[in-house]
Amino acid sequence: MLSATFRALRRAERLGTAMAVRMKHTLPDLPYDYNALEPYISAEIMKLHHQKHHNAYVTNLNIAEEKLAEALAKKNLSQVISLQPALKFNGGGHINHSLFWQVLSPTGGGEPKGDLMDLIRREYGLFENMKNELINSTVAIQGSGWGWLGYNPTSGRLRINTTANQDPLEPTTGLIPLFGIDVWEHAYYLQYKNVRADYVKAIFNVADWENVTKRLHAAKMAN
Amino acid sequence: MAFEFKNLPYAYDALEPHIDAKTMEIHHSKHHKTYFDKFTDAVKGTPAENQPLEQVLKELDASKGPVRNNGGGFYNHNLFWLCMSPAGNRTPSGKLGDAVNQTFGSYDNLKQKINDAGVGRFGSGFVWLISNSAGTLEDNPLMPFAEKRGTPVFCVDVWEHAYYLKFQNRRPEYLNSFWNVASWKHAEEIYARIAH
């Protein structure tokens, strides 16, 4: 979605128009009801997380992009640069949460199959090993951030990584996100309070390995 | 010298209805206590074990993750509890009061600046009033690698755990509520010691 915006901007510039063409980002619907991931993630959390937190990232991303378009049109480089934190934060928040809703499912859980499992076994030996490493890395994040199972398009290998705040995995590390775990406190606090580890372990019960596999296939095809 | 995990100087429900009892209880007995436990564990058998906490933070090596994160968390919350009270000292007075007016124009301006910094903070952190300005930081300002160094005088916790049970995503509302329980007594004492 972000790349479509930049293509539109460049198209507008080539046409010599001062006015930037921009497509607004929108909040995607969840592919399931708010209560669908219970008892692992409460309906209350899902509703707030989607309608308040993700929605705020979308709103503020649109505002930041509006300001970016103006700054670019006025060729105000200082302003363009000063907008980068807001773009990274809100753009990252939109990217991350859009992925998050898709990699969770009421029919998730269990273990992956096929080439995703092959890749996991090759890297970690056992699925349990990958799971434990991802859990430990994610729980250990200081403050707000995300735990990721990522794909290195150069080596074709899986890599567990974490990002701070709303930093999106691919732009900041080059790894393609396959599965992500939000550990901002808003993702679990109402239900799990300070016990982040219980939430991170529980989320594997709703991990949609089929969706994760689709992302792996897309990543392989693109590279 | 042993580090001490102190009780709150007031009951968990003493700041109601502005800050809820459940938050105060979990914030103190879980979050703060965990920082204390992990910090004392991390410094066990090292020289830091017998130093004052401020000194440990001032001489900190940024790479010492557990000491930094938990030492910071331990110190930050020690101060935060003293920045609130069930009653009294709602406005900075004395030398600190003068300094606030001189630097910010008025106490209202300072509150606005703290609110703006708190709302504008991406992610977790604290808002600090340090001996020369107000800004947001994650690291404690005593730490040598903090963005802005100085002596912490006053702080506000804007980690989500500080407000989520009652305010959910509404951080601005939490900050407004906070001012109803803000206490400047300890800040005045700190400032009186360091002001020339």
UniProtKB/TrEMBL annotation, chain A:
Reaction(s) catalysed by this chain's protein: 2 superoxide + 2 H(+) = H2O2 + O2
SUPFAM superfamilies the UniProt entry points to: Fe,Mn superoxide dismutase (SOD), C-terminal domain, Fe,Mn superoxide dismutase (SOD), N-terminal domain
Signal sequence extent: none
Subcellular location: Mitochondrion
Enzyme class: oxidoreductase
CC cofactor: Mn(2+)
Entry annotated with the keyword Electron transport: no
Chain ranges of the Manganese/iron superoxide dismutase C-terminal domain: 112-215
The protein's Enzyme Commission number: 1.15.1.1
Alphabetical UniProt keywords: Manganese, Metal-binding, Mitochondrion, Oxidoreductase
GO MF term list: manganese ion binding; superoxide dismutase activity
InterPro entries referenced in this protein's UniProt entry, alphabetically: Fe/Mn_Superoxide_Dismutase (IPR050265), Mn/Fe_SOD (IPR001189), Mn/Fe_SOD_BS (IPR019833), Mn/Fe_SOD_C (IPR019832), Mn/Fe_SOD_N (IPR019831), Mn/Fe_SOD_N_sf (IPR036324), SOD_C_sf (IPR036314)
Sequence positions that bind Mn(2+): H49, H97, D182, H186
Keyword Ribonucleoprotein recorded: no
The protein's role, per its UniProt record: Destroys radicals which are normally produced within the cells and which are toxic to biological systems.
Subunit and partners: Homotetramer.
Family, similarity comment: Belongs to the iron/manganese superoxide dismutase family.
PANTHER family attached to this UniProt entry: SUPEROXIDE DISMUTASE 2, SUPEROXIDE DISMUTASE [MN], MITOCHONDRIAL
This protein's name: Superoxide dismutase
Naturally occurring in which organism (per UniProt): Potamilus streckersoni
High-level lineage: Eukaryota, Metazoa, Spiralia, Lophotrochozoa, Mollusca
TrEMBL record, chain B:
Tree of life domain: Eukaryota
InterPro entries, per the entry: Mn/Fe_SOD, Mn/Fe_SOD_BS, Mn/Fe_SOD_C, Mn/Fe_SOD_N, Mn/Fe_SOD_N_sf, SOD_C_sf
Keyword tRNA processing: no
Binding site for Mn(2+): H27, H77, D157, H161
Catalysed reactions, semicolon-separated: 2 superoxide + 2 H(+) = H2O2 + O2
GO function terms (MF aspect): metal ion binding; superoxide dismutase activity
Gene Ontology annotations for the cellular component aspect, listed alphabetically: cytoplasm
Domain Manganese/iron superoxide dismutase C-terminal: 92-189
Annotated keywords: Manganese, Metal-binding, Oxidoreductase
E.C. code: 1.15.1.1
This protein's record includes keyword Oxidoreductase: yes
Name of this chain's protein: Superoxide dismutase
Origin species: Potamilus streckersoni
